[in-house]
Amino acid sequence: MHSHRVTFILASFSLFFSTAVFAQTGTNVGAPAAPSKPLNPDMSINFLGVARMYSGFALQEAEMQFIADVDPYFRANALFAVSKNATTGEYGIAPEEIFFETISIPSLTVKAGKFKAALTRHNLLHSHAFPFISAPIVNTELLGDEGLNNAGISAAALVPLPWFSEFTLQGFTNSSTPFNSGNSGDWIGVAQFRNLWDLNDDLTLEFNLSGAQGKNAYAGKTNIVASDLIFKWRPAVGGKYQALIWQSEFLSGTMRGKPSDDSVDGWASWLQYQFAQRWWAQTRYDMTGISAATRANQKKRLSFLVGFFPSEFSGFRLEYGRTEQVATTDHALALQFNISIGAHPAHAY
Q1: 190 closest CA partner among 212, 168, 205
Q2: Interval 79-137: pLDDT, tens
Q3: Can you give the pTM of this predicted structure?
Q4: Which domains, from first to last, does the chain contain?
Q5: Are the beta carbons of 104 and 73 closer than 8 angstroms?
């Protein structure tokens, strides 16, 4: 039964993808295909496979994405993911992000649908775009494996400052960790203030502040504050072979309403250095339990990663992590491959 279900899902992906490509190219080899292209979205499929030291090899996730301009006023994006259910152990398909957004309003972008919240840069990433194979500990413990990703509405406006500055307000349905009020009428509010400076031709600096608030299952409120600091260096000459990224994130959340308030806080900081056209070397230190209220459950991890990327459509990464918690130490080793086909859209800077 399990193998039949996986076969059905993969066959559905293949049929859907090939049918759409067939519609774009047409049945007449000699006829031009250009007129049909505006009627079909750009499509891509990305899949991750990972081999872990203690659990063997598995398909980590597969994503199928469709994106296109609807008309001169709107763009639509639909992304579906295939992953294994942690409870049943079987693969299933589910919508990860499906939304539309405006493209014609000056200095303002309005978005509605199901999408990832602007709460730290890492929360906006899909699994294949994670800097490391695993997410930072604090992101997983506070926001869950999928992060904050609900149905909602968003408005992002450019702030009239000498540098790139953007203020975003979002409202989401209250149905994910650590909120879950159980009332369909409750909302999660998210705000982000993003700033980006070009320090010179080679170096940029980004600093973001964000926060979220919503009711939780204990008739109280959950409050989250977060910040990001990102330096990116890529020389204008020779940048194809050399680059450096230093990124740090901080997250803190408090769930009020229980007999004693629950808190989770932590930070992560990592360096990514490209030392050749196809090679990256990375290291990360992340931890939870940095305040007096959370120190009893403190967890620390040191990670190292080497990545080989033959092209923008393929990559292989080997990651080692050492995690310390109370009196225990865990070691983890994982090898991941990352393959993309189709018109894969560019990631946000």
Answers
A1: 212
A2: 999 998 877 888 999 999 999 999 999 999 999 999 999 999 999 999 999 999 999 99
A3: 0.85
A4: 112-342 (2.40.160.10)
A5: yes
